[in-house]
User: What shape does this take?
Amino acid sequence: MQKPAKTKAPINHIIAHRWSPRAFSNKAIEEDKINALLEAARWSSSAFNEQPWRFIIGKKEEETWKKILTTLVEWNQQWAKTAPLLVLNIAKLNFTHNNKPNDVAEYDLGQAVATMALEAVHQGLFGHQMTGFDGKKAAELFNIPEGYKAVSVTAFGYYGNPDDIPADIAKQEINERSRNELKEMVFSTTFGK
Ligand SMILES: Cc1cc2nc3c(=O)[nH]c(=O)nc-3n(C[C@H](O)[C@H](O)[C@H](O)COP(=O)(O)O)c2cc1C
Assistant: This one.
């Protein structure tokens, strides 16, 4: 399903066509497309080129996929179980060059994840990020070492059938996408003005 952003200025097709569905198709994602998602993340920018992102990828029916699914809050599990690929997004919290805290590790991880989500659109896929999950449980299940933080999970796949997810959630699939006005977030003299 297409839900292009109703933009007030022309923007590139991929950004306009990215949205976060909850009804995914059962169709597996081809290996080359999974590689493309990961390669896109790899080329994201980061402070000091630290590249503080790590990903645990689970393909449907694999143990890893099931484990990632169990970390999600129940509400997310109801729809995310339709996704053929679940990715656990992890930040490395200290810089490698001096072992000091990297205050922008999660910022940089977020950029990499956003880059993946845009590449997904390029590949005819969709991604849906979630922070409704239990990071501590993820750390236990996957032996994530100290100094790393499980920050979010992304569900990826082709668009599916809203009938395959609970009706109240499916309703949101047809909701129009909305955004605040630019004037609420862009200022020119002082904050708020
Ligand atoms: C960091 C982050 C966390 C999110 N967590 C959840 C979540 O736990 N469950 C969910 O259904 N959607 C989640 N979302 C999806 C947002 O609700 C969605 O991106 C937002 O409503 C804008 O819609 P769009 O992505 O379709 O433009 C999350 C998105 C982001 C970026």
Q: What stands out?
A: The first strand starts at residue 53 and ends at 59. DSSP finds seven helices and four strands in the chain. The chain has a mean pLDDT of 97. The two ends are 38 Å apart (CA to CA).
